[in-house]
What does this fold into?
Amino acid sequence: MVSRVIPVEDFDLVIFGATGDLAHRKILPGLFRRFEAGQIPPSSRIIGAARTEQDDDAFRAETLQAICEHTTVRKDDPRLAEFLQLLGYVAIDAKGEGGWQALKDRMRKGAVHAFYFSVAPALFGDIAERLAGRGIADANSRIVVEKPFGRDLASARALNATLAQHFDEHQIYRIDHYLGKETVQNLMAVRFANVLFEPLWNAQYIDHVQITVAETVGVAGRGSYYDKSGAIRDMIQNHMMQLLCLIAMEPPYHFDPDAVRDEKLKVIRALERVEPVDIVRGQYQGKGADYLADAGDRDSRTESYVAMKVRISNWRWQGTPFYLRTGKKLRARTSEIAITFKEPPHSIFDDSGTPKANELVIRLQPNEGMNLKVMIKEPGPGGMRLVQVPLDMSFADALGADGADMPDAYERLIMDVIRGNQTLFMRGDEVEAAWAWTDPIINAWEDSKRRPEPYDPGSSGPEEALRLMHRDNRRWREIRG
Ligand code: NAP
It folds into this structure.
């Protein structure tokens, strides 16, 4: 299958924080890949900005090194040399006065203007104010802001208010890179471009949903940073909430940014408050890896693992729980959504084994794809015996070479910014609603005296989390890479 590459308009993209980790690992390599694919017009300009004093050539050399380190491209690839010609650099301190006029002088009339804030959120306001106040950005410019978008409702509101002083909502692109993943978008295609699933997509036919994001890495090296956030702030409030919304939302009237985001917002607003009994927090502790040591705080109560049962209070989902779990130092690295349907109400097969519930598993990583478990007759003679088999589809296999070459989430999202398509970006009210739901969970925990449950590094998480499921006569799916 040949995927079509539709070039975007000519643009000037300014990356604040161009010398940082995210720019080196994701943004600049991603831009190169889109250039290589023919999606970026060669007249476009990518301007790095940070405090480090350097000229265009030094920034090009730095970018060359970053791209070679984080992609398989070779230093002498002629396409890389062409790409580097798009780059420029301006030394700017977000809080200072120097450099802004030089930046303004570099912006070309007629091109799409986008400003990527790949810096600490504390600098968003300073940059927004200077871009707008000095006429560098105008009503058609776009700004891209990175996570974390606040650490609670109050800070998210304050951040939204700061940005709103200088930019309209239609100019603000809040990145949640999970939304740029191929499979995440496929959730919408599967649900709304097939007649097969939607009639069954409700509490009458779905027993429960499990959303798992498991990592094998711990927090060593960035423990003190992680310790201020924890799994709920780092994963649940944003990425997993977005996955839940895409599974649970009503069909939007059109695949249009606000129509999609309106429906996601309704899901967040329908989430019931999670009671303490429905949530388990854990910290990895054992041979070879210890969260408290990694965090540098023996008294830390920050969770490196969380599992919770979530209920959605609306007609479609009344009675169907959503179980979310995410953690560090688990058995395997995997992200998946598993939809377990109800068992058939009656079996016509007497001694052939009870038909098991169908299960649809959508894998986000590794090996993006879908797997639908269906009952069939066990092949061969010997009467009617039932067996469950997977209908497995890996997107890379199904899409051939192009599948393996699918754009990374950042590539897709940056191209969407240039196209002016906000569908895969969180709207301000969505982010605030997500914090409004998460805040009481975090506050109740902070008020309690409990400590997170310990779990062995390389395990599936704390025993308590297993009991959360057993209590409901259900089981977690095995965590497998
Ligand atoms: P980083 O490696 O610490 O880089 C920060 C960048 O900001 C550097 O380029 C730094 O360059 C620049 N900077 C710092 N202070 C500045 C100032 N006053 N004025 C102008 N530039 C300034 O951080 P990062 O990991 O790239 O993260 C950037 C943002 O992305 C953060 O909001 C982070 O939360 C978010 N994020 C990062 C990742 C990731 O994987 N790294 C993932 C998701 C979200 P100079 O020192 O030269 O000024």
